[in-house]
Design goal:
With 110 residues, the protein is mainly alpha-helical. Helices cover 79% and strands 0% of the residues. It has one domain (25-107). It contains 6 helices and no strands. The chain is elongated, with a radius of gyration of 18 Å. The model has no long low-confidence stretch (mean pLDDT 85).
Length: 110
């Protein structure tokens, strides 16, 4: 006899789940790189730069939650709401890389 969990697992199609996670990760990556570039151009230092990263991560997650997920993240990704708002370690490093790059380009001769 199948349970409710088995029925839910049968409705998830693997290639669609992989595609959804790839798109979500790409959106988060581009958002963190753009936020890093903005932080560098604005000349933000220390906690203000990380505050911008936090705000940009929350903003992009809320936009995906409302627009892409239609307030039901469990339908589109494995992990649900927690995975939707998780910035990911690689995105933090991308943010720092872009932040220091653009800060160095714009403010090197100040």
């Amino acid at each position: 006899m199948s349970t409710a969990a088995d029925a839910t697992a049968q409705r998830i199609y693997g290639p669609h789940l992989v595609h959804n996670m790839t798109v979500i990760n790409n959106i988060k990556f581009i958002s963190s790189c753009f936020a890093g570039a903005v932080a560098g151009v604005l000349g933000l230092e220390n906690w203000l730069g990380f505050a911008l990263f936090l705000v940009s991560t929350l903003f992009s997650s809320v936009c995906m939650y409302g627009v892409n997920f239609k307030t039901y993240p469990n339908r589109y990704m494995h992990g649900g709401l927690l995975a939707a708002f998780n910035p990911g370690q690689e995105n933090v490093f991308s943010f720092i890389l872009m932040w220091t790059l653009f800060y160095g380009i714009v403010h090197v001769y100040d």
